[in-house]
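In the design runs reported in the main text, the only information available to the sequence generator was the tokenized backbone. The following block is the verbatim input for one such run; it is reproduced so that readers can re-run the procedure and compare outputs position by position.
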């Protein structure tokens, strides 16, 4: 080590704040006051408590958290790909189904065309043999012979040809069509193009479809090989006599039999017509596109908690907390119902022991507060949504009623009529104080998890699951299954206290119930009535928690391969995550100062964590191009200037004598009259009648009628939402504008 140049002392310390190495005197100066500095020996002695080791642990936790986030995002990406792959596979399948009958007809017609072309080839070969025979038998006059001879002599003198070439030219003229390249008749698209280009069969004979005809070993020419006769044949020119021609015709007749009397017919496949018509519904296509977009949505996920001293959103991306001032003071004591199928969040009892509240899920604003008329109030009510029209309220306690502290009630709340009714009471074998959890399955059953007791002294030894199905009118609960747990614990005398305070969570998609007791995890399959028990030292030890039952658990499935249970202990017990697939607990590193005992919590997928809260109101996105209006205009009726003028005139006309209207009234009336395009009710009715037939929003109808643009480009620039009309739809938009213009002319 070096000595300090200023104090001549050993530089054996490092200041972590300033990142400076120096001696003790250097680091005792005022600029290093309050800074942490250590020597190598101190770092060695402190071990895991040193700044370096602490930083290593911080980095390790951060890496673990980032890796977890990376895996989660990867799984979500895979799920998105799988979703669209399934849609793609479905579209391909539907496309194939539609094409099957058409392809069958195409195959029939294609085979028939190919067969008929081969027949034409054979006939053409016979015709050419006849033409060759006629050429051989025809006589030429002497003058033609002399002219031919003189021409040949002259040709020979010039050295430009000979008799052999002349004979070759004659032969080539007879078979000129044979020298063209062959076209594969299986290429029906090319074949159809060639056929459509030819008006006469003679033109078709000269096309590339025909290739040099083949003949069999005996010299009889056909357009294609005949499997009945044999495949061993070679190309020859034929003898050109009548006998060979007759043999060719005979051979043709054996194959096609189309020259017989009454047999000259067209194949039935040739008479097939296109009896299919395709109709594409543009509106349904738009609906499908809309439904595809709605079938998958990517939003930030958070957990909304309604605690004793604050309500907040816990982001599941970075575990940051954001207070929700609109819900401050709402205490649920677990009695909260939130479901993605419901527009509202419902809170029953709690601090307001006889009341209930409705919270709009999109804005997190309390929209309704009322009393629970017709039923008892209470705290700790186990609330459960059946997935249809009712929320069931089970048990709870009401200490204001000294004679009936623990309630054995099963009441329900009708979501549509907003009314309460007494539905049933608990089975006499169920003690209200023993009911610890309730949940519903997709088939309509309501389940209750209760502690079970046995023996002469009624010792608690496990759990029982009772159920009833209100969908079919059941009111009496029946025992579904029993779970013996006491034998798994050594201290059976404290089993009551232990089993009365479990952490419980239900996975509705898999119909699986999770129960956490001390270091034991019970996984219960509701349908199969079976369960497994696991012990893991890594499991969060709940023995230190005074009342785990009062801590809220939340289940969420991130993807097909990742699902977690969140335990919200807040300031006192901390927040934790249990990975179902990994069977492992981990802590959430977040500065949570909220007391969360008896709080309500649930997954919020409305994207509220992405929005800002100002004075307790969520600032919603506004975009006129997408017809997204401010909250105060969502249910507004948009009027034409002409309609406003008529309404204000009526208001003025029917006002009592002496009524004074404010200046804004007169200015609005003057503006509406000045820019009124239609002077009477009949014209306004016609305009609305024309525009109502189009796919236009009420806002767009009012804008078009008030602004009166002359062309589609002007309309799109003035009314941005009309840009959804593609260039190909400009004619439709222009037709609307022209009709409005005509109405104004005759107004």
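Verbatim output:
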């Amino acid at each position: 080590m070096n000595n300090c140049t200023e104090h001549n002392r050993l530089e054996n310390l490092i200041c972590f704040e300033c990142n400076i190495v120096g001696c003790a005197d250097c680091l005792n100066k005022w600029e290093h006051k309050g800074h942490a500095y250590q020597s190598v020996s101190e770092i060695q002695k402190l071990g895991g408590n040193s700044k370096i080791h602490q930083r290593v642990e911080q980095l390790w936790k951060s890496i673990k958290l980032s890796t977890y986030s990376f895996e989660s995002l990867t799984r979500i990406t895979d799920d998105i790909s799988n979703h669209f792959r399934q849609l793609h596979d479905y579209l391909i399948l539907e496309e194939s189904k539609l094409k099957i009958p058409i392809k069958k007809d195409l195959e029939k017609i294609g085979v028939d065309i190919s067969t008929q072309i081969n027949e034409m080839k054979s006939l053409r070969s016979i015709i050419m043999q006849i033409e060759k025979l006629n050429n051989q038998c025809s006589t030429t006059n002497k003058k033609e012979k002399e002219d031919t001879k003189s021409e040949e002599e002259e040709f020979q003198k010039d050295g430009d040809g000979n008799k052999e070439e002349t004979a070759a030219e004659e032969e080539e003229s007879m078979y000129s069509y044979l020298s063209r390249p062959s076209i594969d008749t299986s290429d029906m698209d090319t074949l159809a193009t060639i056929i459509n280009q030819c008006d006469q069969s003679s033109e078709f004979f000269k096309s590339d479809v025909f290739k040099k005809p083949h003949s069999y070993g005996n010299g009889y020419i056909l357009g294609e090989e005949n499997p009945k006769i044999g495949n061993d044949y070679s190309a020859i020119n034929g003898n050109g006599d009548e006998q060979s021609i007759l043999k060719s015709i005979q051979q043709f007749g054996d194959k096609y039999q189309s020259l017989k009397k009454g047999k000259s017919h067209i194949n039935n496949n040739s008479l097939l017509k296109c009896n299919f018509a395709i109709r594409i519904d543009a509106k349904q296509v738009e609906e499908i596109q809309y439904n595809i977009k709605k079938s998958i949505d990517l939003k930030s996920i958070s957990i909304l908690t309604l605690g004793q001293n604050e309500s907040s959103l816990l982001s599941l991306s970075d575990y940051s907390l954001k207070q929700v001032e609109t819900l401050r003071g709402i205490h649920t004591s677990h009695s909260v119902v939130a479901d993605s199928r419901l527009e509202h969040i419902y809170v029953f009892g709690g601090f307001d022991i006889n009341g209930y509240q409705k919270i709009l899920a999109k804005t997190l604003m309390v929209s309704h507060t009322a009393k629970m008329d017709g039923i008892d109030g209470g705290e700790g009510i186990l609330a459960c949504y059946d997935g249809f029209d009712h929320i069931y309220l089970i048990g709870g306690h009401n200490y204001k009623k000294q004679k009936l502290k623990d309630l054995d009630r099963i009441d329900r709340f009708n979501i549509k009529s907003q009314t309460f009714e007494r539905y049933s009471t608990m089975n006499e074998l169920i003690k209200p104080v023993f009911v610890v959890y309730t949940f519903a399955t997709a088939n309509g059953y309501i389940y209750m998890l209760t502690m079970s007791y046995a023996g002469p002294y009624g010792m608690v030894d496990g759990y029982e699951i009772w159920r009833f199905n209100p969908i079919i009118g059941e009111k009496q609960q029946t025992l579904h299954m029993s779970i013996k747990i006491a034998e798994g614990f050594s201290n059976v005398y404290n089993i009551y206290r232990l089993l009365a305070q479990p952490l419980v969570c239900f996975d509705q998609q898999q119909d699986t119930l999770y129960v956490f007791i001390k270091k034991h995890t019970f996984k219960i399959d509701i349908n199969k009535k079976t369960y497994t028990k696991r012990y893991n030292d890594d499991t969060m030890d709940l023995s230190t928690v005074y009342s785990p039952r009062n801590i809220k658990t939340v289940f969420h499935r991130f993807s097909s391969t990742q699902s977690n249970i969140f335990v919200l202990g807040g300031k006192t017990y901390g927040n934790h995550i249990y990975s179902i697939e990994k069977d492992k607990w981990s802590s959430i590193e977040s500065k949570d100062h909220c007391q969360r005992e008896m709080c309500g919590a649930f997954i919020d997928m409305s994207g509220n964590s992405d929005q800002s809260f100002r004075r307790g109101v969520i600032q919603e996105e506004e975009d006129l191009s997408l017809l997204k209006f401010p909250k105060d205009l969502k249910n507004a009726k948009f009027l034409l200037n002409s309609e406003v003028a008529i309404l204000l005139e009526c208001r003025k006309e029917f006002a009592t004598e002496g009524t004074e209207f404010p200046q804004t009234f007169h200015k609005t009336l003057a503006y509406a009259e000045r820019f009124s395009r239609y002077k009477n009710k009949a014209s306004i009715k016609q305009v609305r009648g024309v525009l109502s037939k189009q796919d236009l929003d009420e806002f767009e109808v009012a804008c078009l009628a008030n602004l009166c643009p002359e062309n589609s480009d002007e309309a799109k620039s003035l009314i941005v939402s009309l840009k959804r009309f593609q260039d190909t739809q400009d004619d439709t938009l222009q037709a609307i504008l022209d009709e409005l213009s005509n109405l104004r002319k005759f107004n």
